[in-house]
Design goal:
With 361 residues, the protein is α+β, with helices and mostly antiparallel strands. It folds into 2 domains: 230 residues, Rossmann fold (3-Layer(aba) Sandwich); 116 residues, no CATH class. β20 and β21 form a beta hairpin. The longest helix has 18 residues.
């Protein structure tokens, strides 16, 4: 296993900066997920760690040793891609042990390692079969087994579940997390799917436009985003984003007549200066349609169910937002909209950066 460190890593292609001054340390045995939209630089970063893409500037280090000039085969890494590349004419057993045979490992060692990896991945019943006879999830599991049988220092996974049907994906997410904990191998995983990131990662590295936006544990990424992009990229339904205007007694929500008094008590004075544009970020789970006192009246557009949850939509100006209907006996669209004070996040509208709330008293 290895500690991976990126030091001011930048990668350019014909003048386009795909990765821009990225620095990060992945601890030995840690499971880190690179998350972000298509084209944000996450796969290019992964390929640089693998030795498939050369850094324009900066360094890649394994256990403190610079590996920029080493080839992929010299870095002792294993990589699994989005589309499984098993040899169709070889059995599952032959596919798994192929890397060991290619390296001249003895038959005794191959047998021992095959027994070990077969037990971990629960592949005993499939060893004699061929890839075409297996469902997509099982084929991806075979690809993982073939990757780890070499005892790599680092396991690199590039969207390994995105080509698998949804019915298999949930099961594979659980299995992948379980297997990584068993193996203890340093793992870097690339995805654009926030559900995978939130369920698998020890830490999430959120990227956008070639740069790291935020690095944190999944729960903190959800509840404590550093800017508007992080707040809206994480979470489904997405975080509500509402214009704020400082007025007497609080902050007015967009074009409505509703004023939040709690906001004025929590924000630093510089954020309340005249004319400074602010935005309120609040997740749907922190906005409730309730019969309890203390809410505010806003036009309710629709009430609908998603699984066990009952959501509602409400309008402020031209924008429709979402919340959770927590009424015990819902009857139409009557009721107050309540904003949980602890769920209110404030952002500078000009920069998108988070404005930290203050605890006073």
């Amino acid at each position: 296993m290895a500690e991976i460190a990126l030091k001011n890593l930048s990668i350019e292609f014909g003048g386009f900066k795909a990765v821009d001054d990225v620095s990060l340390t992945v601890a030995n045995g840690e499971f880190v997920v690179y998350l972000g939209p298509s084209g944000c630089g996450k796969t290019t970063t992964l390929r640089s760690i693998a030795g498939l893409v050369r850094a324009t500037s900066g360094d890649v280090l394994f256990d403190g040793v610079r590996v920029n000039e080493l080839t992929a085969s010299e870095r002792n890494i294993a990589m699994v891609f989005q589309f499984v590349s098993l040899y169709p004419h070889l059995s599952i057993k032959e596919n798994i042990v192929f890397p060991l045979k290619a390296r001249g490992v003895t038959k005794v060692q191959i047998a021992r390692k095959l027994e070990w990896v077969t037990d971990i991945f629960k592949l005993g019943d499939e060893l004699a079969r061929y890839p075409g006879a297996l469902p997509p999830g099982a084929r991806q599991k075979v690809a993982l087994a073939r990757a780890v049988i070499r005892d790599p220092a680092v396991l690199l996974l590039d969207e390994p579940l995105s080509a698998i049907d949804e019915q298999f994906r949930e099961e594979m997410r659980w299995e992948l997390g379980h297997l990584q904990r068993q193996l203890g191998v340093t793992t870097i995983y690339v995805t654009h799917d926030q559900r995978e990131a939130m369920s698998l990662a020890d830490r999430i590295v959120l990227m956008n436009n070639g740069s790291i936006v935020q690095v944190s544990e999944p729960n903190r990424m959800f509840f404590d985003p550093v800017d508007v992009f992080a707040g809206q990229f994480i979470g489904s339904p997405s975080m509500n984003l509402i214009d704020l205007a400082p007025v007497e007694g609080g902050l007015r929500l967009g074009d409505s007549d509703v004023t939040l008094t709690v906001a004025r008590d929590r924000l630093p004075q510089w954020a309340l200066s005249a004319g400074r544009p602010l935005k309120l970020g609040v997740r749907p789970v922190n906005v409730h349609l309730t019969d309890e006192p203390g809410g505010v009246f806003l036009p309710v557009e629709d009430i609908y169910s998603v699984g066990r949850e009952r959501f509602f939509s409400f309008r402020i100006g031209e924008t429709v937002h979402q919340g959770v209907d927590k009424r015990v006996s819902p009857g139409g669209s009557e009721g107050c909209v309540h904003f949980d004070p602890e769920g209110l996040l404030f952002f500078d509208a000009a920069t998108g950066r988070r404005v930290a709330a203050e605890v006073k008293g």
